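lol so apparently i was supposed to do this last week
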Amino acid sequence: MGLRKMDDDFYLYPGSPSTGFKLNGEGIILVDPGHGSGRHKDLLREARKLGKPVLAQVATHGHADHIAVSLRVGAPLHIHRFEFSIAESPLAREVMTFGSKAPEGFLAYSFPEELRVRGVFDWGESPFGLKAVGLPGHSPGMTGFLSGNVLYAGDSFFGERLLGAVGLPYLIDVGAFLRSLDSLEGLASSGVTLIPSHGPVVSGEGALDLVAINRERILRAVGLTLEFLKRPLSTDELALKLMEAFGVEPSPKKLALNLVPVRAIIARLYNEDKIEALVEKGLKWKVKGD
Ligand SMILES: [Zn+2]
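anyway here it is w/ zinc ion bound
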């Protein structure tokens, strides 16, 4: 497998996440180097084929699977300022996916090393010629990188296969995630090709459809939550019912993963004054006034 040309100066190397190669004159900027024992060698080999050195790396967010090989690639890593400490600290990375120190081997992906982030940027800036587009919701500083007519969109939306496997899209803020989907829709409508880190490259109608599928999945989960919470349920009970509704067989790891977006849905409905909390053999949530 080699590089796929996406635009005049933007290439994509396959993987989950896939890695972007931005040519910026003197060298290459890698977008989301990814993880895996041999991946840094693959990325450096592809850079040699292009005949340019890797000058820097940028990451869409600080989740471990997007940045693990950045140490071995060696070029300085830049990330949005909200993701800075998440990327640097192994413990902060675990907190972002588990809520505390995680049981060993329990997370889908983690790595023990500290990272050094060499620079931070803000949305609207253009680090190394890549326009940083704010797409928060999956993580606080989730950033898409726009190069010409191509947006490397990170984990701001997902392919159908991944959605089908996990149930709920991983998100920590429902409102922010939905607004980011609106931004993606706007970009796709204006002819921008969207690249999710985990899923197929999409453009035109295909991009609009996939963004709509992500939105529908979240709105359906919110609607079902209001239905299920007509009787008091714990977060775990609610997550299991949602997974069942989406046809996902629960395993300990999948349930733990779904608990994060389920807590985000609970927070949204609570803040909208639609549900309330009670203690009834544990912390339960229930629709108000029923
Ligand atoms: Zn992620």
